[in-house]
Write a structure and sequence with these properties.
Radius of gyration: 20 Å
Low-confidence stretches: 343-350
Distance between the termini: 25 Å
Largest sheet: 10 strands, mixed
Length: 350
């Protein structure tokens, strides 16, 4: 994919700390800040590439401290290396996922800029430059109806809602109240983050009957493929593997995933190539690509990867609105669609 032998003149690493407003709440806790690093690769010409390292340990990456140490070691190795050599090393050596995603993101960004084409087309020449996006509307709490109403007015057709955070009775009541206000064709994408055992999940599935459900992500604690397969057979909508995806592939094999949909997060799985490989290993499963609350460069990478893998489902790209500040302009989200700009419109690389 990357056969560019241009020599890298420098590798710069800049840290960031961005507040979230409101905080990001899941069944696994609350996040009030997003911390990470931007990696800039520069050549002897005017072109530079940018990648982002945004570890999130609760999502399955290395820790913030581990990422920082590894990233700075790599930065010291890169100067003078050819781009194609770095690309090969990233596949040959064992690297933690967020660091790998940042370095690989910087390489593909630089290569796409040098070729003056959208990154999505570097990954897949037939990729669209416009993909559907779900609206992240937070938890199933008392404010859900208002947030969902605003999102649908803004043109979103799929609403991403965190569940398994508060009392089940309250959350189900909020979902029902929300469903009553939704226009025809709007669906709810629920993310339980592994909050339930099998018994609780079955209760939830029964309570959700009749509601406009797009999918339920990570319904079960643990990674028992037999329980997931049984639960999938009991519901009409797709269940999705997110955090459990890589372990499930290891347990079930490429053709045996027990759910109908997979959620791929480049920051968690290690960048572009691991994401593309996972999509292939998932076989006939539906594929959705999502961010992990990255700053603008990480969202750009994820958006272009979503376009390269797009099969019509709404992707999780509209998380920039949770940041009170950002490091640069992110992808344009309008009326529930993410529009990918040409290379001259991509965020500056320093």
């Amino acid at each position: 994919m990357i056969d560019d032998h241009v020599r890298i003149r420098s590798c710069r690493v800049d840290s960031y700390d961005l507040p979230l407003n409101p905080p990001w709440v899941t069944s696994r806790g609350q996040l009030s800040h997003r911390q990470g690093w931007l990696v800039f690769l520069a050549t002897d010409g005017e072109v530079a590439g940018c990648g982002e390292c945004a570890p999130m340990e609760q999502a399955g990456t290395e820790s913030h401290a581990e990422a920082g140490q590894s990233l700075h070691r790599w930065a010291g190795r890169v100067a003078g290396m050819r781009l194609s050599k770095l690309w090969q090393l990233l596949d040959d050596e064992a690297i933690s996922p967020a660091v790998r995603c940042a370095l690989e993101g910087a390489v593909v960004d630089l290569a796409a800029r040098r070729q003056r084409q959208p990154l999505a087309h570097l990954l897949n020449p037939a990729a669209p430059l416009d993909v559907a996006v779900n609206a992240a509307v937070g938890s199933a709490d008392q404010g859900l109806v208002g947030r969902a109403t605003r999102a649908t007015r803004d043109g979103y057709k799929v609403l991403k809602i965190k569940v398994g955070v508060g009392p089940a009775e309250d959350e189900i009541g909020s979902l029902r109240a929300c469903a009553e206000r939704l226009a025809p064709g709007v669906t709810m994408r629920l993310d339980a983050n592994g909050a339930w055992d099998m018994a609780a999940a079955r209760v939830w599935m029964r309570e959700l009957e009749g509601l406009p459900i797009d999918t339920v992500e990570e319904p079960l604690a643990g990674m028992d493929p037999d329980e997931l397969r049984q639960l999938q057979q009991e519901v009409d909508w797709s269940l999705a593997a997110d955090e459990s995806l890589i372990p499930l592939i290891g347990i079930s094999g490429p053709a045996g995933l027990p759910v109908r949909r997979v959620v791929i997060k480049p920051m968690v799985v290690g960048g572009v190539r691991p994401s593309l490989r996972l999509a292939t290993q998932a076989g006939d499963c539906e594929v959705v690509v999502t961010t992990t609350l990255e700053a603008a460069p990480g969202r750009w990478l994820t958006a272009h990867l979503a376009a390269a893998l797009d099969d019509g489902f709404a992707h999780g790209l509209d998380t920039g609105r949770w940041l009170s500040a950002d490091v640069g302009p992110g992808p344009v989200i309008w009326r529930g669609r993410c529009r990918l700009a040409d290379p001259d419109r991509l965020p500056s690389s320093g």
